[in-house]
Design a protein that fits this description.
With about 140 residues, the protein is an alpha/beta fold. The chain has a domain of about 90 residues: Roll (Formyltetrahydrofolate synthetase, domain 3), CATH 3.10.410. Helices cover about 25% and strands about 20% of the residues. The chain has three helices and six strands; from the N terminus they run ααβαβββββ. The strands form two sheets. A four-stranded mixed sheet has the order 1-3-4-2. A hairpin with a 4-residue loop joins strand 3 and strand 4. It starts with a helix and ends with a strand.
Length: about 140
């Protein structure tokens, strides 16, 4: 383990790293989405809903077009279709909406029929948490 750690340190401190981002910050948001979809996910093309296109324009008009893009999609596939398991290719990625997550500093592109809270069930455990008449919390475990 020490040999590996030392090698990682040597490589990190060398000039051999060839890191580059997938797209430049100043690339239009639509092109950022298309780049992620085609170069990473294997999509053949991207279909962005009219409402989402208008929102992309609004985001850019507000000066936030240089933000990175976070794709919200099914966990079962690199497509927006949960039945296309794994890494399909040549599919059309459908973007239904976009919004800015300004605190986190990125634009979210929503694809398919998903919830953006990972692991949130139809009846979250928080619904069962309460404080009884003695001030004791119940429903945590």
């Amino acid at each position: 383990a020490m040999d590996l750690a030392e090698k990682v340190i040597r490589l990190a401190e060398s000039d051999k790293a060839d890191f580059h981002t997938l797209y430049p910050d100043d690339m239009p948001l639509k092109e950022k989405i298309e780049t992620i979809a085609t170069q990473i996910y294997g999509a053949g093309s991207v279909d962005i809903d009219r409402k989402a296109m208008q929102e992309l324009k609004n985001i850019e008009d507000m000066g936030m077009g240089d933000l990175p893009v976070c794709m919200a999609k099914t966990q079962y596939s690199l497509s927006d279709d949960p039945t296309l398991l794994g890494r399909p290719s040549g599919f059309v990625l459908k973007v239904r909406d976009v919004y800015v997550s300004s605190g986190a500093g990125f634009v979210v592109a929503l694809t398919g029929d998903i919830m953006t809270m990972p692991g949130l069930s139809s009846h979250p455990a928080a619904y069962d948490i309460d404080v009884n008449e003695d001030g004791k919390i119940r429903g945590l475990f």
